[in-house]
Design brief:
Elements lengths: L35 H17 L3 E2 L9 E5 L15 E6 H5 L6 E5 L15 E5 L9 E6 L2 E10 L2 E5 L8 E3 L5 E11 L4
Antiparallel strand pairs: 1-4, 2-3, 4-5, 5-10, 6-7, 6-10, 7-8, 8-9
Length: 193
């Protein structure tokens, strides 16, 4: 029997470790056909995140709910009413802020283009990928590989990503632009310092 001279491991052959577009080891994964496009979109956004340095945070699995007391008394902007300070219930911020845990992620806003919508630089945006991005909603979009948060406006076939600050230009999407709507902003977490 003749021994084959082809195949086998050759020294120095193959792709260098962690040299691919993800800069880490990869693994082959079977995906149902119905999920191929959403997975591709997520991978494109992940690659954009590596390129742009945008920080994407995912909800953490917590062994227990974190609940905080909530009071029935509404907070007055004038003089407080001391008779109204009784406990109503407990508030779980995970349940309050997250409707679809598997499709929700957090992203930290950067810049001042959305001040008119109450989004300040450094705020954490709660984003739901399962919601339909309809005109008038604030969305996380990837335009030509760059992340942005803007208000989506559709006029027939024309799409505009509108800033909520007059100092910034709107982004008009043309046929030469690549647009991926990554999710709809459902809440803004803003610290009062």
């Amino acid at each position: 029997m003749q021994q084959s001279t082809h195949g086998g491991v050759r020294s120095g052959a193959g792709r260098k470790k962690n040299s691919g577009s993800f800069k880490e080891e990869t693994k082959v994964l079977r995906v149902p056909l119905s999920l191929v496009e959403p997975v591709k979109t997520s991978l494109k956004v992940y690659q954009s995140q590596l390129k742009t340095g945008v920080e994407v945070l995912l909800p953490q699995n917590s062994p227990e709910d974190v609940t905080i007391p909530i009071f029935t008394s509404h907070v007055q902007a004038g003089f407080p009413s001391p008779a109204d300070d009784y406990l109503e219930d407990k508030l779980d911020l995970n349940k309050y802020l997250i409707q679809h845990k598997e499709a929700t992620f957090f992203v930290r806003a950067q810049g001042d283009s959305m001040l008119g919508a109450g989004i300040h630089s450094g705020d954490i945006l709660v984003v739901d990928k399962s919601l339909k991005a309809i005109s008038g909603k604030i969305v996380i979009a990837v335009v030509d590989g760059d992340f942005t948060v803007k208000r989506l406006h559709k006029y027939g076939e024309r799409i505009t990503l509108k800033a909520e600050n007059d100092a910034f230009d709107d982004i008009k999407i043309g046929s030469d632009n690549e647009l991926i709507i990554w999710g709809v902003v459902t809440s803004v977490i803003h610290r009062c310092d």
